[in-house]
């Protein structure tokens, strides 16, 4: 019981000091989980990231669940994740209440008009970074372009696009391998 | 009833948004279309706040939307909905860790998923540009290009982009600077 509380506390602290999640949490994890507490090795943390990145959900949440599970089983996985999201819930609940009281002030409106521009640029920058890792050849280029067009100009749900893109990845790789085999057994 | 719907909607987002926090944004756009719980402008403001407060962006976004829609219970329920698929999926995978990573099929599927995620976020980015940089109404009413863009905003966008490329500081620095720019130059609300 005491250990579960400790798990909750440590992940609550991670949630409170990580700005942005994802890889922003990595250096903090390395210090708190690997070096200070020996709860996981450096390699294990990197494995969790690799898997957390390609499984459903937010990366940092996935990594929290992994480490909690490693330490204390299923309950540990749940407790670590709840700990990680607790600060977000508290902080956002306070800010949302506070902001709506001031939302009509002209100064706040001007500030947010500027902030929206900034967010747009930040996300544009994120797209460029993601694209460099994800768009590597013609197939991934086409998938990216088609999903972009479909999401922008049609009302198709992103869920359908994600499922179709996963299927397209699996099929195109399978065809590629078959093709390479027919050509004389070269490894695709 | 609305709490149940919130949980269900965010459970879906948690299940299908693969990757980082930005991956939840396109889903929130489609949620805005489907429910009218919040506008695109609300969403842009929520993203800004989620980026500049502690915690993962996706988690902050779900807390924020939940809070907007149904107060504190909504805030908690939406966030739990978002992380529930993670908890379930990761607990299952943790059992089969090695086999999952080495599976060729899993790798092939993700070969297609990653560019799709990029395309979705690019589309969301365009939606944001539409409300923050362009005056779409000008396109149909007045046929001059100079009215199409909000020029002060475009200048700000270029400045921020150059700043990111040059200094690579934490997002909160640029958000703070952009807020100051907005107040000083009285950007349109």
UniProtKB/TrEMBL annotation, chain A:
<feature type="transmembrane region" description="Helical">
    <location>
        <begin position="111"/>
        <end position="128"/>
    </location>
</feature>
<keyword id="KW-1133">Transmembrane helix</keyword>
<keyword id="KW-0472">Membrane</keyword>
<dbReference type="InterPro" id="IPR003370">
    <property type="entry name" value="Chromate_transpt"/>
</dbReference>
<dbReference type="Pfam" id="PF02417">
    <property type="entry name" value="Chromate_transp"/>
</dbReference>
<protein>
    <submittedName>
        <fullName>Chromate transporter</fullName>
    </submittedName>
</protein>
<keyword id="KW-1003">Cell membrane</keyword>
<feature type="transmembrane region" description="Helical">
    <location>
        <begin position="74"/>
        <end position="99"/>
    </location>
</feature>
<dbReference type="InterPro" id="IPR052518">
    <property type="entry name" value="CHR_Transporter"/>
</dbReference>
<feature type="transmembrane region" description="Helical">
    <location>
        <begin position="159"/>
        <end position="176"/>
    </location>
</feature>
<comment type="similarity">
    <text>Belongs to the chromate ion transporter (CHR) (TC 2.A.51) family.</text>
</comment>
<keyword id="KW-0812">Transmembrane</keyword>
<feature type="transmembrane region" description="Helical">
    <location>
        <begin position="6"/>
        <end position="29"/>
    </location>
</feature>
<dbReference type="GO" id="GO:0015109">
    <property type="term" value="F:chromate transmembrane transporter activity"/>
</dbReference>
<dbReference type="GO" id="GO:0005886">
    <property type="term" value="C:plasma membrane"/>
</dbReference>
UniProtKB/TrEMBL annotation, chain B:
<feature type="transmembrane region" description="Helical">
    <location>
        <begin position="7"/>
        <end position="29"/>
    </location>
</feature>
<feature type="transmembrane region" description="Helical">
    <location>
        <begin position="118"/>
        <end position="142"/>
    </location>
</feature>
<keyword id="KW-1003">Cell membrane</keyword>
<keyword id="KW-0812">Transmembrane</keyword>
<dbReference type="InterPro" id="IPR052518">
    <property type="entry name" value="CHR_Transporter"/>
</dbReference>
<feature type="transmembrane region" description="Helical">
    <location>
        <begin position="171"/>
        <end position="188"/>
    </location>
</feature>
<dbReference type="GO" id="GO:0015109">
    <property type="term" value="F:chromate transmembrane transporter activity"/>
</dbReference>
<dbReference type="GO" id="GO:0005886">
    <property type="term" value="C:plasma membrane"/>
</dbReference>
<dbReference type="Pfam" id="PF02417">
    <property type="entry name" value="Chromate_transp"/>
</dbReference>
<dbReference type="InterPro" id="IPR003370">
    <property type="entry name" value="Chromate_transpt"/>
</dbReference>
<protein>
    <submittedName>
        <fullName>Chromate transporter</fullName>
    </submittedName>
</protein>
<comment type="similarity">
    <text>Belongs to the chromate ion transporter (CHR) (TC 2.A.51) family.</text>
</comment>
<feature type="transmembrane region" description="Helical">
    <location>
        <begin position="70"/>
        <end position="97"/>
    </location>
</feature>
<keyword id="KW-1133">Transmembrane helix</keyword>
<feature type="transmembrane region" description="Helical">
    <location>
        <begin position="148"/>
        <end position="164"/>
    </location>
</feature>
<keyword id="KW-0472">Membrane</keyword>
